[in-house]
Amino acid sequence: QKEVEQNSGPLSVPEGAIASLNCTYSDRGSQSFFWYRQYSGKSPELIMFIYSNGDKEDGRFTAQLNKASQYVSLLIRDSQPSDSATYLCAVKSRGNQFYFGTGTSLTVIP
Amino acid sequence: ETGVTQTPRHLVMGMTNKKSLKCEQHLGHNAMYWYKQSAKKPLELMFVYNFKEQTENNSVPSRFSPECPNSSHLFLHLHTLQPEDSALYLCASSAPAGYEQYFGPGTRLTVT
């Protein structure tokens, strides 16, 4: 069983739509959750982090965490072509262990 | 320089060579990390240093040897690598360990 699972995609949405990215994790003791964006040939860039159950909003991005279901998601409102990238879900497990998913490829179609 | 920097950006080395990767963070953070990113695989955490002390070593082969002389600098010493070690090596830092991480641009390593 993988520590962190994401649909690899590709996920395509039209410009202006909401993109929904999902992630599940296996360690119920996981404490912190992160979303990174990675453009092709570039390093991951932090978008959001969330520690508590519920929603956290930052501009066009909303992270949602449900620890009971071991599920974390990222919503991107008013998607733009510049949002086209691979989105990585990361989970901080026990100690200083971090696990990443393989990423979901998002394409925003103009 | 701002953020997290890594040198060199590209490295080609033979299996018998010895080389080192360098990472420097300009964010005032206290934790630094080495990751390996291979095609079609998730980012793999290799080492974690918190306040210069190694806190995680994820069963990384001994041909990879980390060094953290202070909270701003991190090295990865490489020797007798294998072709399957070819990958993007990413350095990251965070305030203390466990918090959100900021990545450097990476070193693209090719082992021939």
User: Share of helix among residues of chain B?
Assistant: under 10%
Measured by DSSP, the beta-strand proportion of chain B falls in over 45%
- Multimeric state of these chains? heterodimer
Give the CA-CA distance, first to last residue of chain B.
32 Å
Percentage of residues assigned to helices of chain A: under 10%
Figure out the total of helices of chain B.
Answer: 0
Radius of gyration of chain A: 13 Å
Q: How many E-type strands of chain A?
A: 11
Point out poorly predicted stretches of chain B. Answer: none
Question: Can you summarize the main beta sheet of chain A?
Answer: 6 strands, mixed
Largest sheet of chain B: 7 strands, mixed
Give a structural overview:
The complex is a heterodimer of chains A (about 110) and B (about 110). With about 110 residues, chain A is an all-beta fold. Helices cover about 0% and strands about 55% of the residues of chain A. Chain A has strands at about 5, 10-15, 20-25, 30-40, 45-50, 55-60, 60-65, 70-75, 85-90, 100, 105-110. In chain A, the strands form two sheets. In chain A, strands 2, 4, 5, 9, 10 and 11 form a six-stranded mixed beta sheet that branches. Chain A has a five-stranded antiparallel beta sheet with strand order 1-3-8-7-6, with no helix packed on it. In chain A, a hairpin with a 2-residue loop joins strand 6 (about 55-60) and strand 7. The mean pLDDT of chain A is about 95. Chain B is mainly β and about 110 residues long. Chain B contains no helices and eleven strands. Chain B has strands spanning about 5, 10-15, 20-25, 30-35, 45-50, 55, 65-70, 75-80, 85-95, 100-105, 105-110. In chain B, strand 7 (about 65-70) and strand 8 form a beta hairpin. The model of chain B has no long low-confidence stretch (mean pLDDT about 95). At the A-B interface, strand 4, strand 5, strand 9 and strand 10 of A face strand 5 and strand 10 of B.
